Amino acid sequence: MTRTPISATNLVARPVAIETVLAGEVKQLLAAGQRARAAERFGEIVDRQQRRAARIAYHYLRDPAEVDEVVQDAFLKAFLHLPSFREDLFFELWFTRILVNACLDRLKARNRRTRWLVQQEPHKDMADTGPASHEPSPETRLLAKERRAQLEVAVDRLSTRQRTAVILSHFEGRTTREVSLVMGLNESTVRVHLFRAVRKLRGSLNRDEWLGRTPLNRDGRSRRRA
Amino acid sequence: MAERDDTTAAVRSPRESRLVSCMRSLGRFAWSTEPAHLSDDQVLALATDSADGRPIDPTVIQHLTSCRRCHRRSRDATDQLLALAEAATASFDDTFTLDVLHAQRTRIGRRLNILVGTAAPGRLLDFPFARNPRPRTHMSSGGWTPAAVVGALLLGLAVGQLVHLHPLDAGASATTTRAVDGRNPAQRAPDSRAASGPSSLGAALDMDMTGTIELPPLPGDYTGPLTLDAFAQVMPDEVFLGSLDVALTGAQVSELASIDALTPRVRDLAINIR
Hints:
heterodimer, A: mainly alpha, Rna Polymerase Sigma Factor, Chain: A, Arc Repressor Mutant, subunit A, 2 domains, 67% helix, globular, disordered C terminus, B: mainly alpha, 13 helices, elongated, disordered N terminus
């Protein structure tokens, strides 16, 4: 997936993000030999991108321990390769490509491992570290858990490219243009993958169940996240 | 444009006039010219803002604004996609709480500091029972004893193999006998057959180092099985017994003594033959 360069000229309408500016500063600090200062500045990038990176990795891997490792490795890899980062690129998309490739590599390794070994249960200790901020009723939590399980199964059935298109476009709110730059594919090709992925998801999931149990449908407020 | 109702069926009254019938036919014609509803793929393309790679037909959008049913289907599809994203995000939020993310951020920072050299890597803990581990870089004085034992064993095995493969006394005796006789074993066979007396030297010469008795060649016209009578014609009893005595009292290979103890004795073999 390294065909199309992530150039700022391809994203004219999008302003230069603060992460890209920070990445340029870190690159200059690394070139000047101020590695400690560079690591400190890179920490600000980590603060801005960590949650989004963990969310993307979680959509791929579902295992909190593996997500943790992949996100750490992706940030370290980005820091190590930052001297080769072109400042006219968007750091966010460049880093997303690193992260997605790491997740796909981890999935391949997991598939190879599960061919020979008995599949392990995902680690639940990180999920049980503390209660969520909101405390819904047990019935609501059970229904929500069931729906998430259905969604995870449906997403896992998608092909690699369809999954990437759905995760980045619908779960992360990225535009088709950005997704195409991350995936290194043509924009129309991404639309095809996206369309087929959503059609397959709708076929896998029970439509009435999904729409009938959506609490946000009742109050009518928008659920699209920025 | 009103929403099409496919479920209602027209019931023609027998008393209706021809005018009413014509009006009903015109109505059916008007229904047939109305564009059909959007397909599921078209609705989905509107919801995902993608039409399988093709641009969305403007007539589809125009139909959506006029058809309440298709509009509702499109809204449902959009809601379903939003529900998918909401469920995916909720699953992440439940798993990765703020504490988990904070711990992850700490680990990333520590690894970054190790990478740039501002922090030392994690210390390797010693094994709990080895409080004062001895250095393993040089061999202590007590370690030479097993090494010497192993070396001596290997040296003894090597010397034993050399002696076994090149027996000095056997080679010397063979040389001696060849010097005494001065002929080939094939030429010595008639002499041993012609010798009389148990202590004949020819019988001893027909033995190799393993104590095997070399039989003289059979007569040329004899093709039958080697029975006792035929054996008696080939080798007389006196010569055979003399060979047995030589085999029992002659030089033996010391390395084969243990194997010889396990094999049947030549004496027993002679008794059985008799």
